[in-house]
Amino acid sequence: MDVSKLTLAGQINLKDISEGKKFYENFMEMTKNPIKHNEEFLLKLLDDNKDTVYGKKYDFANIKSIKEFQSKVPVTEYDDYIEYILPMSINGTKDLITSSEVDHYCKSSGTLGNPKKIPLSKAAQKSMQECTIAYFKALAANKIGLDWVDSKAMNLVELSIETLESGATYGAISAKFMFEFKDYLNELFTSPFEAFFPENDTNTRYLHARFGLMDKNIGMVQCAFYNFFLEILRYIESDWELLVNDIEKGTIDETIKMSNEIRKSLTEKIEPMPERAAELREIFKQGFDNHIVKKIWPNLAILAGTGTGGFASYAKKIKEKYTGEDVKFLYLGLNASEGNFSVAYDFETTDSIFMPNSIFYEFRPVESEDLSNLLTLDQLEHGKDYEIIITNVSGFYRYRMQDVIRITGMLNNMPKMEFLYRLNQTVNLAGEKTTEIVLRNSLNKAEKEFGFDLVEFSMYPDSDTSPPKYKFLIEALNIPTDVEKEDIRRFIQDDLSKTNPSFGDKIKKGILGEIELGYLFEETYLLYRDMMIMKGTSSAQLKPPRVIVNESQRKFFFALIDNEL
Fold it and tell me: Where in this chain does the record put each GH3 middle domain (predicted)?
């Protein structure tokens, strides 16, 4: 391939592939003896941090094995670090929990109330860039070739970033990465800067869709979660005439929300594209039910993002209706503000493999409440579920992530895993312990049984009623006119009772009340998403609240129940 003839996007993609190849090959080698590399990582990390305040407190200097580490250092949660994070983020105090420089703090997920400040060291950033950019591009080149290389990507993140008193930045890690090469964004991605770092009330769905449709040669779509891409496709389906008219004329329809300054800035970047508009108009007139994505973007090869756990249903809908088998799905593994815990090893597989040289892992079997005998990578069993506990390079030690994973097999000697749910999204009103995955599966079955399109759902565990009960709220499209709400409600309750016999038994005994079901207004979850982004939550971390866990969420969703349905 003649590099000199490539676009800037193509040249950068090839550079990333070249750099990622050695990471990919090294990583595959580590799968042969992962616990060896994981222990080496831990011991080096402890040695590097032995002179920190935390390291001195727990005698890092004299820890020479995993067992000594487990016996001397306690299992922790976020509150255990507040006394260190406050002076770090306010005053820039160093060497408290990590010797590595911390110049960025991540906001935690916006579904659980006030966001936290998660320290992210420069060492962690380097590791994350290697495995999220270079590694996965090298993987793509190895598995599907290079046809996608010389093209821009559609990237669907929406971000915000601010500066703390210490001078460190604060926001999603992707915001820091994107902001650092903001001058090149238009060369790498279809969406404009105004979509990545939007002002309040800017219609970013329009911007992502419109600028994406303008570029016929897109090779990859990148999104934090697959529901973002589904959201864009649904927007195109409902508003394609407006989008095509604007592309044809080089205008921005006056109904599209944005400030006058943003409208002026964007208008200067676009020109009339009558030929592309005519092409798109013919495609859209044929309908959206026959894998339209490859007609819109014939060179699109990769859809990369999170499509497991609570996002599996979105991946299924995208593939069944919009892409078919011609676009390869790359599920990016388990990632969080605290680090990247696993990476993909192939396309079209929902499991992933651990990264033994960037995180030290411990595991609690979910059937046990015992935190005194945690397991390591070499002790995991196929088919079993575990809470993952991590030690990272940013100052968290034996930190409970609240994430539950399942071991799905082995790659060489490396366990393969799949994310299931978060512990704080488990409902336990009366000892029944219903997980978010069980709730989601029952709703997906109801969707299939009654032939409607489930956009999203939330469930409020109401402990203030007597007896306590589950209150489901769903946003759904195309509910058949002959389907009664009571039919869906009864189906969900019966399915939950079969899946979780403890739930069903408590319903029969009156310990739990019968479930309630409410229909939400159309676009409720889009409104929730926009509201949270306006409050400073990054779309890269914003997940739908499947279990309503605080009063602000409860008030928001219950205020949007459509009582006429």
Answer: 353-422
User: Of 271, 304, 326, which residue is a domain's last?
Assistant: 326
Q: Write the single-letter amino acid at 228.
A: F
CA–CA separation, 248 and 254 (whole Å): 15
- Domain-terminating residue out of 304, 326, 348: 326
Question: What are 172-230's pLDDT values in tens digits?
Answer: 878 888 877 778 888 899 999 999 888 878 999 999 999 999 999 999 999 988 989 99
Round to the nearest angstrom and report the end-to-end CA distance of the chain: 59
d(CA 324, CA 544): 25
Check if the beta carbon of residue 243 is closer than 8 Å to that of residue 209.
yes
Distance, in Å, from the CA atom of 436 to the CA atom of 457, rounded to the nearest integer, reads 11
Question: What's the domain count of the chain?
Answer: 2
Residue 89 phi, psi dihedral angles, 5° rounding: -80, -25
The torsion angles phi and psi of 37, rounded to 5 degrees, stand at: -70, -35
Residue of 408, 400, 403, 469 whose CA lies nearest to 437: 403
Please give the structure tokens belonging to residue 317: 């809908």
Is the pTM above the cut of 0.85? no
- Strand-pairing partners, residue 112, are none
Put residue 339 in one of left, alpha, beta given phi > 0 → left and psi -120 to 50 → alpha. Answer: left
Non-local (6+) Cβ contacts of 53 within 8 A are 84, 95, 96, 97
In a domain, 266, yes or no: yes
Query: Which tokens sit at 557?
Result: 């969703």
**Cα of 178 vs its chain's centroid, Å:** 17
In degrees rounded to 5, what are phi and psi of residue 31?
-65, -15
CA distance 446 to 400: 34
Amino acid at 448: K
Question: Domain containing 448: what range?
Answer: 426-558
DSSP structure string for 88-128? HHHH---SSS-SS-EEEEEEPPGGGSSPPEEEEEHHHHHHH
Q: How many CB atoms lie within 10 A of CB 25?
A: 12
